[in-house]
């Protein structure tokens, strides 16, 4: 799943290529991905890409009308946002040779949405692999209209050490759960939470409110170090290479059975119904192996 560093990198990549360009048209191959109907997706045609940014793990493409915007202290911008949540298997593919033939609606291919902007052939496809279709797109005048955005917790990179401590001190949930709950803290998913907890030397199942001051210090440093390092590594990368760049920087996530790069112990895995995560027993759990069975109760 694309997380904060990848979504930030995609936003920067698309902004650098599309900002200031007109959107010529939008093709929708899967109506199921559209979660709003007003404004219609056809309203995007002719508008200008004003900028691209992220909110949490959501990609936001903001557009202005083609005509000059009103000026003055009381002027209101006629902004329409294209909001994309790539979910677990979504991605964005930029092309300078984009097909002018609209993708077939309801087809079995990975393309869900195609945005033509700039010169003919320029633009991007929003794709989703696999059979579980969770990718979602909203077209709104205010990003707060997207309920999932309206209920997001603070961006993880915006938090001070004391703000992070206050959030964790208010919940008895496991630290792994807290870090990945977008309603509590936004931006971190399964992969980077594994990396953050490994760097901070904290068990995934430590109780959030029970962390010591030393653990909180290590966690705060790890959050910023892991995510900032990933952002720097992805800076300037082509969208097509970002997945590989992400994998190359992971030390424990998706490395089950491999040696921990810090201590050499074997990286272990805990599996659930629809996902798994990894950790190092020596670095994080005092050598104890967490129970590995679906829907298991977890060892402390």
Automatic annotation (TrEMBL):
It catalyses: 2'-deoxyribonucleotide-(2'-deoxyribose 5'-phosphate)-2'-deoxyribonucleotide-DNA = a 3'-end 2'-deoxyribonucleotide-(2,3-dehydro-2,3-deoxyribose 5'-phosphate)-DNA + a 5'-end 5'-phospho-2'-deoxyribonucleoside-DNA + H(+); Hydrolysis of DNA containing ring-opened 7-methylguanine residues, releasing 2,6-diamino-4-hydroxy-5-(N-methyl)formamidopyrimidine. SMART domains: Fapy_DNA_glyco (SM00898), H2TH (SM01232). GO terms for molecular function: 8-oxo-7,8-dihydroguanine DNA N-glycosylase activity; class I DNA-(apurinic or apyrimidinic site) endonuclease activity; damaged DNA binding; zinc ion binding. The keyword Hydrolase applies. Keywords: DNA damage, DNA repair, DNA-binding, Glycosidase, Hydrolase, Lyase, Metal-binding, Multifunctional enzyme, Zinc, Zinc-finger. The keyword Lyase applies. Its cofactor is Zn(2+). Residues 251-285 form the FPG-type domain. CDD domains: BaFpgNei_N_1. GO terms for biological process: base-excision repair. Residues 2-107 form the Formamidopyrimidine-DNA glycosylase catalytic domain. PROSITE patterns: FPG_CAT, ZF_FPG_1, ZF_FPG_2. Belongs to the FPG family. PANTHER family: FORMAMIDOPYRIMIDINE-DNA GLYCOSYLASE. This is Fpg/Nei family DNA glycosylase. It comes from Williamsia herbipolensis. The lineage of its organism: Bacteria, Bacillati, Actinomycetota, Actinomycetes, Mycobacteriales.
């Amino acid at each position: 799943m694309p997380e904060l560093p990848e979504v930030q990198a995609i936003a920067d990549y698309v902004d650098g290529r599309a900002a200031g360009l007109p959107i010529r048209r939008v093709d929708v191959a899967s109506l199921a991905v559209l979660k709003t109907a007003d404004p219609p997706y056809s309203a995007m045609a002719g508008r200008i890409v004003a900028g691209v940014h992220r909110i949490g793990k959501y990609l936001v493409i903001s557009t202005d009308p083609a005509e000059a915007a009103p000026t003055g202290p009381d002027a209101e911008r006629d902004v329409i946002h294209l909001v994309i949540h790539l979910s677990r298997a979504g991605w964005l593919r930029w092309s300078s040779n984009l097909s002018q033939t609209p993708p077939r609606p309801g087809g079995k291919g990975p393309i869900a949405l195609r945005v033509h902007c700039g010169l003919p052939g320029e633009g991007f496809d929003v794709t989703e692999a696999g059979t579980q279709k969770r990718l979602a797109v909203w077209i709104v005048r205010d990003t707060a209209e997207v309920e999932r955005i309206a209920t997001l917790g603070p961006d993880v990179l915006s938090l001070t050490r004391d703000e992070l401590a206050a959030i964790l001190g208010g919940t008895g949930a496991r630290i792994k759960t807290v870090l990945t709950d977008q309603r509590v803290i936004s931006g971190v998913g399964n992969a980077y939470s594994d990396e953050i907890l490994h760097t901070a030397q904290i068990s995934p199942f430590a109780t959030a409110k029970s962390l010591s001051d030393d653990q909180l210090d290590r966690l705060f440093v790890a959050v910023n170090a892991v995510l900032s390092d990933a952002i720097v590594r992805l800076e300037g990368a082509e969208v097509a290479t970002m997945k590989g760049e992400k994998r190359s920087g992971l030390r424990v996530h998706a490395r089950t059975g491999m040696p921990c790069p810090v201590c050499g112990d074997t990286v272990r895995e805990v599996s659930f119904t629809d996902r798994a995560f990894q950790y190092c027993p020596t670095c994080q759990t005092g050598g104890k192996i967490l129970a590995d069975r679906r829907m298991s109760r977890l060892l402390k």
